[in-house]
């Protein structure tokens, strides 16, 4: 044990001392501690010998703290309180009632399943702090492998990532989001074909952020005989939607993501080839998740199941 953590007295000496200091009565203190009074007196005498000072003035009628005793009590009481709190905190962490989880997400997650998960988790586990950060799927996978994230809401690649376990939350075909003034936005419920968008510029995200979905977009366009004209590559997702609202192009979006968008954009489903979006929650394994993370993963699965 390091020298700074070596003590000349035991924890029970401090507990006994504080109880006598509170009661200022050896018999009452002994009863509260469930020990014999002579044994309590011996423990206090041992503590005084180690400390090298009288801590109590004893008489037949009363017990009082000496100045040294008052100073000692002032120092010891917060220490014991902190030790008791540490024990409670460890128990709460073990039960998954307290802790800290770092969570990353994409725009699709925040626009669909994540708000409901956060709301339910906050209700059930108010003692666990969540640190939220929007991040591209590729960056999330790197952070998960490095142990820098508890979990991430991300779009999976075409092949599994070693050491990362995932659980599917959402899978949908994409439609097209258009500015409200676009000629193809007039018949909102009629499906479009990608060929109809030959003259429309597209707003996408950089391929490096989600290569698998980017390639699915190009593949769908190729199958439809369309070579997309990409006007902007921008991230995060909300910025891309903002460019559509500004009339700078169209973008691919899922029906769930399009539900709560403002009236200056229009969602149109696609007939024929269309890229599919998948959203998973991913975490590092092994080892098994810590209790706080395990609680979050459970709430995520339960909440999405109720929304299905």
Can you characterise this structure?
The protein has three domains: 3-94, Arc Repressor Mutant, subunit A (Orthogonal Bundle), CATH 1.10.10; 100-163 and 284-307, D-Maltodextrin-Binding Protein, domain 2; 175-274, D-Maltodextrin-Binding Protein, domain 2 (3-Layer(aba) Sandwich), CATH 3.40.190.10. The protein is rod-shaped. With 308 residues, the chain is of the alpha/beta class. The longest helix has 28 residues, at 67-94. The protein contains eleven helices and twelve strands. The strands form four sheets. The chain has a five-stranded mixed beta sheet, with helices on both faces. A three-stranded antiparallel beta sheet has the order 10-7-11. A two-stranded antiparallel ribbon has the order 1-2.
Q: Summed up, what is this model?
A:
By secondary structure, the chain is an alpha/beta fold. It has helices at residues 11-23, 26-33, 37-51, 67-94, 107-111, 114-124, 137-145, 211-223, 237-245, 255-258, 291-307; strands at residues 56-58, 63-65, 99-105, 128-134, 151-154, 164-173, 175-179, 201-204, 229-233, 251-253, 265-268, 276-284.
List keywords for this structure.
single chain; 308 residues; D-Maltodextrin-Binding Protein, domain 2; three-stranded antiparallel sheet; 11 helices; 43% helix; rod-shaped
């Amino acid at each position: 044990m390091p020298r700074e953590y070596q003590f000349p007295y035991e924890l029970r000496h401090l507990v006994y001392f504080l109880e006598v200091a509170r009661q200022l009565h050896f018999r009452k203190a002994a009863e509260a501690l469930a020990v014999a009074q002579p044994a309590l007196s011996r423990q206090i005498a041992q503590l005084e010998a180690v400390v090298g000072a009288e801590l109590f003035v004893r008489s037949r009628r009363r017990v009082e703290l000496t100045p040294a005793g008052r100073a000692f009590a002032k120092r010891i009481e917060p220490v014991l309180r902190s030790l008791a709190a540490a024990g409670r905190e460890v128990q709460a962490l073990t039960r998954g009632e307290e802790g800290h989880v770092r969570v990353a997400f994409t725009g699709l997650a925040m626009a669909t399943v994540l708000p409901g998960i956060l709301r339910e988790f906050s209700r059930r586990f108010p003692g666990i702090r969540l640190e939220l950060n929007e991040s591209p799927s590729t960056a999330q996978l790197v952070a998960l492998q490095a142990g820098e994230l508890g979990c991430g809401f991300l779009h999976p690649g075409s092949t599994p990532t070693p050491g990362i376990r995932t659980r599917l939350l959402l899978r949908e075909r994409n439609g097209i989001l258009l500015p409200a003034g676009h000629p193809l936005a007039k018949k909102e419920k009629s499906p479009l074909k990608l060929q109809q968008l030959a003259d429309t510029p597209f707003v996408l995200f950089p391929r490096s952020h989600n290569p698998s979905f980017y390639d699915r977009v190009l593949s769908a366009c190729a199958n439809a005989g369309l070579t997309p004209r990409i006007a902007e590559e921008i991230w995060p997702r909300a910025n891309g939607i903002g460019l559509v609202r500004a009339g700078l192009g169209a973008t691919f979006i899922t029906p769930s993501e399009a539900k709560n968008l403002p009236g200056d954009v229009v969602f149109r489903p696609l007939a024929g080839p269309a890229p599919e979006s998948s959203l998973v929650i991913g975490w590092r394994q092994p080892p098994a998740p810590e209790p706080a993370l395990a609680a979050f993963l459970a709430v995520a699965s339960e909440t999405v199941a109720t929304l299905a």
